[in-house]
């Protein structure tokens, strides 16, 4: 049986100080058994995303280490960015990759959240599959009001009180959201306008809550340093809503305002199948096409078959077993 593999994709509220981003990533990568696969940061969003994988317990230890480093180094009282956030370590999602289910990860998320609250004094909220009420499954609900409005939200709404720790905002690190979710795609489309109200109007029509695409979360944000705006999306299930469909709807809504698309961006890692779907759509590949025509896939199949046929070599210096 192949070992359990878990992905974690923590988002931190720092995208302008490379040394802080590096320190957070290094604190994660130092945990034995953990492999950091990707580090993304954005100055306008003032945010970084670290993607790493490993067995369950090392992944939890690395998540705590990353949150601890963020709490030590990030002060949200002086933080301004275009992306919503309530915490220095804003959200810490656990994602099942192999040998473990969403449901089986929920107790792990609870253990991690309880430890963060107990040892770091940061209030923790559970979301996604780990949420303790239907409304709290949605990350946007827990982020409403941002860091600046978090204390008032906790004081005024029982649904906004933390699952772990006292209902008091950490003075510099805010709160942290910990949860369990399937793999998603973070996908942004940059618009040829600096009018953020246009971007927000487009985002409203694209996201599921506004009658747009199923399993899509979208916001319109201003990119001050680039002098433009962006539709920032999470595609929660690319099999139901592929990347090309999200792109085409953004483009169609933008045309209503006479706005062109400048570029698009994948944040972090993306499943290969999601990009192949885009190629199939835009190239209009016919029924003779098969994904087994992808060279790298066939080579991987060949290498796997050869590895299975290859006899196991004895350890160096080992005596052959008696016949």
UniProtKB/TrEMBL annotation:
InterPro entries: Formiminotransferase_C, Formiminotransferase_C_sf, Formiminotransferase_cat, Formiminotransferase_N, Formiminotransferase_N_sf, FormiminoTrfase_cat_dom_sf, FTCD
Region Disordered, residue ranges: 152-172
E.C. code: 2.1.2.5
Domain Formiminotransferase C-terminal subdomain: 183-298
Keywords: Cytoplasm, Folate-binding, Histidine metabolism, Transferase
Location within or outside the cell: Cytoplasm
Main subcellular location of this protein, as a coarse class: cytoplasm
Annotated ranges, domain Formiminotransferase N-terminal subdomain: 4-182
Name under which the protein is recorded: glutamate formimidoyltransferase
Species annotation: Geochorda subterranea
Gene name of the encoded protein: ftcD
């Amino acid at each position: 049986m192949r070992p359990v593999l878990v992905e974690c994709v923590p988002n931190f509220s720092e995208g302008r100080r490379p040394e802080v981003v590096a320190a957070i990533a290094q604190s994660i990568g130092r945990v034995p058994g953990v492999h950091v696969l990707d580090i993304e940061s954005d100055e306008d969003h003032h945010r970084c995303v670290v993607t790493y994988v490993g067995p369950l317990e090392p992944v939890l230890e690395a998540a705590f280490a990353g949150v601890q480093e963020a709490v030590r180094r990030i002060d949200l009282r002086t933080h301004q960015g275009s992306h919503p956030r309530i915490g220095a370590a804003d959200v810490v999602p656990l994602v099942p990759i192999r040998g473990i289910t969403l449901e089986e990860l929920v107790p792990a998320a609870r253990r991690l959240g309880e430890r963060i609250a107990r040892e770091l004094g940061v209030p923790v909220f559970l979301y996604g599959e780990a949420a303790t009420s239907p409304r709290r499954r949605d990350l946007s609900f827990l982020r409403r009001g941002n860091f600046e409005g978090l204390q008032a939200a906790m004081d005024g709404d029982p649904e906004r009180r933390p699952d772990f720790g006292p209902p008091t905002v950490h003075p510099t690190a805010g709160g942290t959201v910990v949860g369990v979710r399937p793999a998603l795609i973070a996908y942004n489309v940059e618009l040829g306008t600096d009018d953020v109200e246009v971007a927000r109007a487009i985002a409203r029509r694209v996201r599921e809550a506004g009658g747009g695409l199923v399993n899509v979360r979208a916001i319109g944000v201003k990119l001050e340093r680039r002098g433009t705006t962006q539709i920032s999306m999470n595609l929660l299930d690319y099999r139901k809503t592929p990347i090309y469909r999200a792109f085409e709807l953004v483009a169609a809504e933008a045309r209503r305002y006479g706005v062109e698309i400048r570029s698009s961006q994948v944040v972090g890692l993306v499943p290969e199948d999601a990009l192949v779907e885009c190629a199939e759509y835009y190239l209009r590949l016919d029924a003779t096409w098969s994904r087994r025509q992808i060279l790298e896939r066939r080579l991987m199949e060949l290498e796997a078959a050869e590895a299975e046929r290859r006899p196991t070599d004895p350890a160096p210096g080992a005596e052959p077993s008696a016949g």
